[in-house]
Amino acid sequence: MPAQQKKLIFCTAGLLSLASALGAAAALGTQLWVRGTTLCTTGALLVNASGPELHKFIGEIRYGLFSGQRVRQCGLGGRPLHFSFFPDLLRIIPASIHVSVILFCTVLLVFALVGAGFFLLNAFGSPYETLQGPAGLYLWSFISCSCGCLIMILFSSEVKFHHLSEKIANFKEGTFTFKTHSEQFANSFWTILVCSLVHFLNALLIRLAGFEFPFSKSKDSGTITGAADLMY
């Protein structure tokens, strides 16, 4: 492949990695991971609410990795309550999973920046064989893509299997009991999915630039060498 085309491919991959790093940073600092509604079951049962009356007992909840907000509604109007995971909710959330999600988000951010730097160095500089050659580029892309997948798996398990929204809604509630009415992943969660796909695309761009996978060996070279040995 001509040098100009390789330079264009590496520039594209570098800009994609940089955009992935910015997306990971934005996702890490926002409260747009989960949106949902909660039903005050205690209040609804007290007045035997049904149909349109049930909406008076449905509150809202949204949160990210560090903080969030819930609207407590039990028939007398909504009251917004802000909360933070550290240290307020540390006793009721699966702390090991939650900290792991934050850790992998940080790793994704760091390696996306590292990958962007190496892609741009390969485009405009003289690449080193180990760090900036094909093996290094595949490595940074693989680590970033793997971190993105782990983030989605861990956070999904935290929300769905450990009922994170319900635990948050019932935090410090002695009288009323809340149940998750609806729940959906929001923009920041899907941003992590896009970041993972970006790094997978980068691996394809490296291959398009003409680089073989680091662990692949050419069979033709062995065949030619064997034929040459037979000739002599």
UniProtKB/TrEMBL annotation:
Alphabetical UniProt keywords: Membrane, Signal, Transmembrane, Transmembrane helix
Stretches that traverse the bilayer: 97-125, 137-155, 189-209
Localisation per UniProt entry: Membrane
Signal peptide interval: 1-27
Statement: the UniProt record of this protein carries the keyword Transmembrane: yes
Topology term for the membrane: Multi-pass membrane protein
This protein's record includes keyword Transmembrane helix: yes
Protein name: CLRN1 protein
Protein's organism: Sylvietta virens (Green crombec)
Gene expressing this chain: Clrn1
